[in-house]
């Protein structure tokens, strides 16, 4: 191996400080190749970024993922439609309820099942609760990565309270599995809507406080304005959706453009920024939390008592009273859970505005109780794809800001 | 209830909103690409939610570019690229789900591909098609001609087989003791 001159590098002539030329030639004129992740704390989940640095500037990089791949699409072809509900929790685990709701909608659309209004209102509250918690995590962790620790705690306090509400609904905090095809696991407990409304009031105050803490903070502004810019054309090229697209000025919201559930009966605005940098993504997310809180408050006003299960006998889980007391009910129960119900032949691409963007289930059915193809379109894949382009020329510390701002969730990325 | 009958569910009745648009668009596509369009499946007639246009493999990039740029179509958002294993000959169908941010409607383009055949890449139309096509290659083994970087994406680079093919077993192990090394060629 070739010996280099120590004095050239400002080191004393000593055998302890000998510098050898790298056989791979990676150290050419201060350039260095580093491997960030997959278990680095600043990478959100098991993601990997290999970068060639010049000093601290990223010259070129490429991203890798797949470390938590659990073959969900293959499982979707080998589990019944009812069984697959629990797998949808593990997609975007920060907003599991949105995945549950979207999956239930996708199968119901294929079957033509209608869900009673109370179940739809509860689903809407669930989706918006999940959106608020997801955005609180995103902006909180993004600020935490840049050193604003107390800001994160303000958000996480409200998130914990939201999880308590979700726990009252379905008994779980993170992996909810709350929806069923054609209905819900259980009705909301009495007084739950009132508790949600109180939580909305408290969260509005907390958001105002968080706003005062960070939005005009000089350090935060200097670290985020003009960092990680992804403009409108690039966003369309890379199929950005959700808050990341809206931060770049693309007026795109599937809740408004493609109304499902009762979103046409509630009033909300779609916040759109224009610069597409980390700061704008933060602003859009904070504005969206406020809009989601408005939607939740409206839903809590409009929700009424009623059934939560569809009348469709194909998807209705038999009541326990019937199961334990009649032979036919017992047979129905076993047939339902062991064999599953048939979904008519057909295919549908059902999308919904998840907290990060367009979440879709493309289900192809051949008339069997298992799907022929269960494609999950997660928004994070398309956002993570843009990271090498986005961080080119940025400092490595700014890469952390950019990565946190587009909110990559590894569960949804790897599926 | 059958999917063939228009179901006015609470999830929106797309046919009443976009039926006329779709009819005229499909008509225009047939005139522009006559001979290149193998089959069209419309909602109401066939069990599908949006029109499916089966395109010949040679014309798919031209059709995608036309749908993206032509006024009156404006399918400017590539929602998804995926594939299905049909277990007949030709074996695979590559599926392009498109969305129009202007008209707010969707359309689906499909290409039939036999095993060991290539599909032209859509990276020239949407740069974001890169990873979606890599995933199709990884999961189904469908190769994309002209793709700039066709490597496996979800599975390890030493993986054998394509997991989402129907003949791929559900259980089994392939264990690699080391992680993938840094590919310095990609950083040049």
Please tell me about this protein's structure.
The complex is a heterodimer of chains A (415) and B (188). Chain A has helices at 72-78, 85-89, 96-111, 117-145, 149-170, 192-214, 218-224, 232-237, 243-247, 254-257, 278-302, 320-325, 327-339, 379-385, 387-390, 396-405, 410-414, and strands spanning 31-36, 48-54, 57-64, 179-180, 183-184, 346-353, 358-365, 373-377. Chain A is mainly alpha-helical and 415 residues long. In chain A, the strands form three sheets. Chain A has a three-stranded antiparallel beta sheet with strand order 1-2-3. A three-stranded antiparallel beta sheet of chain A has the order 6-7-8. Chain A is globular and about 90 Å long. In chain B, strands 1-2-5-4-3 form a five-stranded mixed beta sheet, covered by helices on one side. In chain B, strands 6-7 form a two-stranded parallel ribbon. Chain B is of the alpha/beta class and 188 residues long. In chain B, a hairpin with a 6-residue loop joins strand 3 (77-85) and strand 4 (92-99). The chains are: A mainly alpha (415), B alpha/beta (188). At the A-B interface, strand 2, strand 3, helix 1, helix 3 and strand 6 of A face strand 3, strand 4 and helix 3 of B.
* CATH architecture assignment of the largest domain in chain A: Orthogonal Bundle
- Percent strand of chain A equals 5-15%
* H-E string of chain A: EEEHHHHHEEHHHHHHHHEEEHHHH
In order across it, which strands form the biggest sheet of chain B?
Answer: 1-2-5-4-3
Mean pLDDT over the full residue set of chain B: 85
Class based on secondary structure composition and strand pairing of chain B: alpha/beta
* Net shape of chain A: globular
Q: What CATH first level of the largest domain in chain A would be assigned?
A: Mainly Alpha
Mean pLDDT of chain A: 86
* Low-pLDDT segments, ≥5 res of chain B: 1-12
Radius of gyration of chain B: 19 Å
- Distance from N terminus to C terminus of chain A (CA atoms, Å) equals 45 Å
